[in-house]
Structure formats: C-alpha cells, structure tokens
Amino acid sequence: MKLIVLNLPRDFDAQSLATLFKSYGNVRDCSLVMDKETGRSKGFGFVEMALTDEGVEAINNLHGSKVGKNKIRVKAAD
After folding, report:
1. Contact call for residues 8 and 32 (beta carbons, < 8 A)
2. Which of 6, 10, 49, 76 has CB 3.0 to 4.6 Å from 55, enough for a Cys bridge?
3. Could you report the per-residue pLDDT of 25-35, keeping only the tens digit for each?
4. pTM score, whole prediction
5. How far apart are the first and last CA of the chain?
6. How far is CA 59 from the centre of its chain?
7. Closest CA to 27 of 57, 48, 51
8. What is the pLDDT of residue 25?
C-alpha cells in the first residue's frame, strides 16, 4: 500500500521516514520529494508498505501525530 506523508519537518530525511513507519510493518520503499534548486525536502514524501493492513495500521497510528513541531498527515496515495 502506497502512502503519502504530508507536513514533515524540512530537515527530515528518508532514513528517518522509514524508521518512523518500520514499527507498523515492512517498508518496501520510502522517498522524500526534494526541491531541485535547494536540495532540501519539500516537507512531504511517500512510503510503500508491503501489506495493505500494515498501511492502514500506519495511517491509524501516525495520522495527526507530531514529528518535531509538525503535526503530520498520513493517507493512502492511490
């Protein structure tokens, strides 16, 4: 299941994003959307969980949670 994660801190990296989701299941892929000019994160990214149930559990537990000072949003990307 592919998820979109919004409102991430700009200094968050892909490794930290994967770590955030690992406790909910197998993370197949994880990427941040980067600004081409500055090379910094645009504050959102994508996570692909191996199973739909894992993705749903991640959404239920992480949507609205705080990462740093930001309240993140997690939802299905498809």
Report:
1. yes
2. 49
3. 999 999 999 99
4. 0.92
5. 8
6. 10
7. 48
8. 96
Measured distance CA(34)–CA(36) in Å, rounded = 6
Listed in sequence order, the residues at least 6 apart from 28 whose beta carbon sits closer than 8 Å to its beta carbon are 48, 49, 50
Tokens of 11: 């200094």
Count, residues in the chain: 78
64: number of Cβ within 10 Å: 11
Encoded amino acid at 46, one letter: F
DSSP of 52-74? HHHHHHHHHHHTT-EETTEE-EE
- Give every strand in the sheet of 2-6, ordered side by side: 27-34, 41-49, 2-6, 73-76
